[in-house]
Design goal:
The protein is α/β, with parallel strands linked by helices and 251 residues long. It has a single domain, classed as TIM Barrel, CATH 3.20.20. It is 42% helix and 18% strand. It has 11 helices and 8 strands. It has helices at residues 13-19, 35-46, 57-66, 85-96, 110-114, 119-123, 125-137, 155-164, 180-186, 201-209, 224-239, and strands at 2-4, 25-32, 74-80, 100-104, 141-147, 169-173, 191-195, 214-217. The chain has an 8-stranded parallel barrel with strand order 1-2-3-4-5-6-7-8, surrounded by 9 helices. Helix 4 runs parallel beside helix 7 (125-137), helix 8 runs parallel beside helix 9 and helix 10 (201-209) crosses helix 11. It is globular, with a radius of gyration of 17 Å. The mean pLDDT is 95.
């Protein structure tokens, strides 16, 4: 499985359609849903970052997913919220479109963390579980985007907890801690999607050998040459004849 990872202010329906010949999934977003997360996103824009700030984020999600109705790729939407109810609402829209709702417990910008989004949500496992349960109860398939290396966070335990709450995918930014993928993948029955530095056969196979069910490409997701290489590597992994364990050579 190859996914396109969300890129703030960039990952929209047109971006997903462009990557569709190579990938299986595309996570649009991230989309700030509630007043606090939107205020944080405006602060990020003020210091030069790109962000999606539509007047009505739920309507925007609906429009973007509708634009991909005939695209040969499954969409998802990465969302940020300081409160749980907008997550439930966004998940219901995703469910209507057969899309994945991805909860962002990943971003580390101070503006987002200060209002309880991103890494702050990752550090509060009980609250993260509530978000997952709300999205799952709304009928959506659920992914949780997380980051390695956050002090005090045990990602395998977090993966187990969110899977128990209804998460279907744990999307891990390995942050140069590639072997951690093995522990996260073994911690639950949720699919493990590995991210960070995926560019070619070597980086793809490293994550898959650690037990990831798939990989995602972030910043170079608009580079067809990289997407072709990674897609070919995923296909080669799935088709290899011996199906024997592959020795991992870390970067």
């Amino acid at each position: 499985m190859l996914a396109l990872a969300s890129l703030s202010g960039v990952a929209d329906a047109d971006w997903a359609r462009t990557g569709a010949p190579h990938a299986d999934l595309a996570f649009l977003g991230g989309i700030a849903l509630d007043a606090d997360s939107r205020a944080a996103a405006r602060s990020l824009v003020a210091r030069g970052r790109e962000e999606f700030l539509p007047a009505d984020p739920i309507a925007f999600i609906d429009e973007q997913l509708a634009a991909l109705a005939d695209a040969p790729i499954r969409p998802g939407v990465n969302v940020r919220s300081a409160t749980v109810e907008p997550v439930r609402e966004a998940a219901a829209v995703c469910a209507d479109h057969g899309a994945i709702l991805e909860i962002n417990a990943h971003c580390r910008q101070d503006e987002l963390c200060d209002v309880g989004c991103g890494e702050t949500l990752l550090r509060d496992r009980d609250r993260l579980v509530d978000y997952v349960a709300a999205a799952s109860d709304a009928g959506a398939a659920v992914s949780v985007k997380v980051r390695a290396g956050v002090p005090g966070v045990e990602l395998p335990a977090t993966a187990s907890a969110v899977a128990d709450a209804g998460a279907d995918v744990v999307h891990v930014d390995a942050m140069d801690s590639e072997p951690l993928i093995a522990d996260v993948a073994a911690a639950s029955d949720a699919a493990c999607l590995a991210n960070n530095g995926v560019r070619d056969r070597a980086t793809t196979w490293e994550y898959l050998a650690y037990g990831a069910d798939g990989v995602s490409v972030g910043r170079p997701s608009d580079d067809p040459a990289i997407l072709r290489r990674v897609a070919r590597a995923v296909d080669d992994w799935e088709r290899r004849e011996d199906r024997e364990p592959v020795e991992v050579v870390s970067r």
